């Protein structure tokens, strides 16, 4: 089995004429759940977009499942859930999922759709038009669309936003199960009680890695009583003022673990 599902070296991304990621290195171990944390605007979505191959103005090496990010070979192997639900509001839940299953080349589409509906707990809404669903339900359709192809790597941008605590807990159980099957998950979140359920944690600030660690190491290294305060301690220690963005030619990223 491959050691790392994702290998990023010297990643640099320019958006709006300025570098929003500058010289980032990252390994995502295969078969693990990696949490991507960081303040708003720190570059999490940009990093995810670079991994799935939809981001312009990317330099450096971004290798996903052994191929360059965005390669046609990866289309069926990578599932991506964007922050805003990216499903068709004028189609029903099942119509959406059939469409995404077909795109992913699933021959067993009916079974894949049924499994995805079940996984995100949308039974009873299959024939409902997505435009009439609640926000939380709609975001779960989006998650199901990322899952329905049976991808090896799932890149999930804040998949639990707007969900109630019960659903959040259930979805994290799903993420753990998918990892146990050998899939790799990169999950962004602002919720630190979710962070502690990850195998590894990647903390970003201003387009750079502040830490690449584990929940236990995060607490041990900072001496903080909980993940939220540990995260704040690292972010505060990282220096630049919020929203400043990385300076062009900024030095190498600091890693607190590994
Ligand atoms: N289309 C764009 N044009 C110019 N700048 C952009 C664009 N998209 C994002 N940015 C900038 O890039 C930086 C990183 O944004 P990104 O969306 O990756 O952050 P994030 O960590 O995902 O934030 P959040 O947690 O709020 O979703 C921000 O400073 C943002 O303003």
From TrEMBL:
Region annotation Disordered: where it falls in the sequence: 237-258
Gene3D superfamilies: P-loop containing nucleotide triphosphate hydrolases
Keywords for this protein: ATP-binding, Nucleotide-binding
Superkingdom field: Bacteria
Listed GO MF terms: ATP binding
Sequence ranges assigned to domain ABC transporter in this UniProt record: 6-231
Keyword Plastid attributed: no
InterPro entries: AAA+_ATPase, ABC_transporter-like_ATP-bd, ABC_transporter-like_CS, P-loop_NTPase
SUPFAM superfamilies noted in UniProt: P-loop containing nucleoside triphosphate hydrolases (SSF52540)
Name this protein carries in UniProt: ABC transporter ATP-binding protein
Source organism of the structure: Promicromonospora aerolata
């Amino acid at each position: 089995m491959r050691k790392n599902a994702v290998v990023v070296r010297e990643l640099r991304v320019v958006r709006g004429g300025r570098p929003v990621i500058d010289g980032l290195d990252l390994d995502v171990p295969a078969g693990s759940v990696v949490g991507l944390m960081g303040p708003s605007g720190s570059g999490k979505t940009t990093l995810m977009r670079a991994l799935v191959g939809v981001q312009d103005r990317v330099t450096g090496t971004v290798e996903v499942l052994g191929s360059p990010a965005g390669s046609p070979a990866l289309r069926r192997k990578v599932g991506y859930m964007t922050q805003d639900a990216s499903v068709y509001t004028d189609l029903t839940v099942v119509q959406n999922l059939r469409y995404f299953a077909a795109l992913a080349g699933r021959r067993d589409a009916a079974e894949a759709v049924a499994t995805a509906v079940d996984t995100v707990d949308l039974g009873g809404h299959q024939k409902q038009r997505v435009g009439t669903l609640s926000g939380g339900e709609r975001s779960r359709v989006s998650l199901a669309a990322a899952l329905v192809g049976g991808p090896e790597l799932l890149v999930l941008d804040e998949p639990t936003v707007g969900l109630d605590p019960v659903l959040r807990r259930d979805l994290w159980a799903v993420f753990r199960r998918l990892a146990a099957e050998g899939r790799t998950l990169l999950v962004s979140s602002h919720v630190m009680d979710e962070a502690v359920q990850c195998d590894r944690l990647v903390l970003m600030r201003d387009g750079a890695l502040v830490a690449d660690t584990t929940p236990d190491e995060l607490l041990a290294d900072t001496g903080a009583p909980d993940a939220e305060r540990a995260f704040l301690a690292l972010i505060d220690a990282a220096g630049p003022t919020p929203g400043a963005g990385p300076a062009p030619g900024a030095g190498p990223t600091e890693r607190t673990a590994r």
